[in-house]
From TrEMBL:
<keyword id="KW-0325">Glycoprotein</keyword>
<keyword id="KW-0677">Repeat</keyword>
<keyword id="KW-0147">Chitin-binding</keyword>
<feature type="domain" description="Chitin-binding type-2">
    <location>
        <begin position="160"/>
        <end position="203"/>
    </location>
</feature>
<dbReference type="InterPro" id="IPR051940">
    <property type="entry name" value="Chitin_bind-dev_reg"/>
</dbReference>
<dbReference type="GO" id="GO:0008061">
    <property type="term" value="F:chitin binding"/>
</dbReference>
<dbReference type="InterPro" id="IPR036508">
    <property type="entry name" value="Chitin-bd_dom_sf"/>
</dbReference>
<dbReference type="Pfam" id="PF01607">
    <property type="entry name" value="CBM_14"/>
</dbReference>
<feature type="domain" description="Chitin-binding type-2">
    <location>
        <begin position="66"/>
        <end position="121"/>
    </location>
</feature>
<keyword id="KW-0732">Signal</keyword>
<protein>
    <submittedName>
        <fullName>Putative chitinase 10</fullName>
    </submittedName>
</protein>
<keyword id="KW-1015">Disulfide bond</keyword>
<feature type="domain" description="Chitin-binding type-2">
    <location>
        <begin position="221"/>
        <end position="260"/>
    </location>
</feature>
<dbReference type="GO" id="GO:0005576">
    <property type="term" value="C:extracellular region"/>
</dbReference>
<dbReference type="InterPro" id="IPR002557">
    <property type="entry name" value="Chitin-bd_dom"/>
</dbReference>
Length: 267
């Protein structure tokens, strides 16, 4: 059975995957003339932290965007790409990528499901980062007290529950957030990621009974169960794809009738 539109067979994962991140090898998509079909990329050289420190990155043509930090520290949505975000540290911008299939949520300042992030990529947009609106304290307002947990400004700290995190603001005051369902907080990447990207986080939910030696959907759109000798084993689709029960394969979210529940409560 063929993969859905926009996906191709990934021989490494033995399932359908985004065509722009799947290696073109035997068994994957080939053009009518036998060649591989992928987006055109150009190589650009960018200077990062200090003079003499140069990194070479490969980005799609027309994508390069030189950004300037509006504040010395902060986390900002990329002005053009929903899948990227900018971490400003001592006025130096660092462009970072969300895991494939996720978008940066400008409100929660983490990677999230596209439906929750509410972002639209605009490749023709200017490269200006949004300037934070300064808050004017009300008369007799209480000055925010720095939290002992926060040893940094505009950063994330892991919570006791690995599906949640704390955000430390510019006053080093903490606020508690939860990643959306199906995502966990990765302390090294400082954002929410797919559960299989951080296996140290074990979410204990009892699986449904194994009724057949087959594949069937889980409670989360991006996962599925495989019955192995009567034991249900949860598997994850790659790159934000959804499990398509009709095709018995991972597929693009817009082609699957599944709604991902959202969970990002504030406490």
């Amino acid at each position: 059975m063929p993969c859905g539109k926009g996906t191709i067979w990934d021989q490494r994962l033995l399932t359908c995957n985004h065509e722009d991140i799947t290696p073109c090898v035997t068994g994957n998509y080939e053009d009518s003339d036998g060649s591989c079909t992928f987006p055109t990329f150009t190589t650009t050289t960018t200077t990062t932290r200090s003079p003499g420190t140069v990194s070479t990155t490969t980005t799609p043509s027309g994508h390069v965007c030189d950004v300037t930090c509006p504040t010395p520290v902060g986390l900002f949505p990329h002005p053009r790409e929903c899948t990227e975000w900018v971490h400003c540290d001592h006025n130096i911008p660092y462009v970072k990528d969300c895991p494939a299939g996720l978008h940066f949520n400008a409100q929660l300042k983490v990677c999230d499901w596209p439906a929750s992030a509410g972002c639209t990529s605009r490749l023709d947009h200017n490269c200006d980062l949004p300037t934070p609106i300064p808050t004017i304290p009300e008369p007799n307002a209480t000055v925010p007290t720095p939290s002992p947990l926060c040893d940094c400004e505009c950063c994330h700290k892991p919570a006791e529950d690995c599906t949640a995190y704390y955000y430390c603001d510019e006053h080093q005051s903490q606020s508690y957030h939860e990643c959306s369902d199906g995502l966990v907080f990765h302390p090294d990447l400082s954002t929410c990621v797919y559960a299989n990207m951080y296996p140290e986080c074990v979410v204990t939910e009892p699986p449904p009974p194994c009724l057949c030696n087959c594949f069937y959907p889980s409670e989360i759109c991006t996962s599925l169960y495989h019955c192995d000798g009567g034991t249900p084993v949860m598997l994850d689709c790659p790159g934000g794809l959804y499990w398509n029960q009709d095709m018995k394969s991972c597929d693009l979210p817009e082609l699957v009738n599944c709604t991902m529940p959202v969970r990002h409560h504030l406490h």
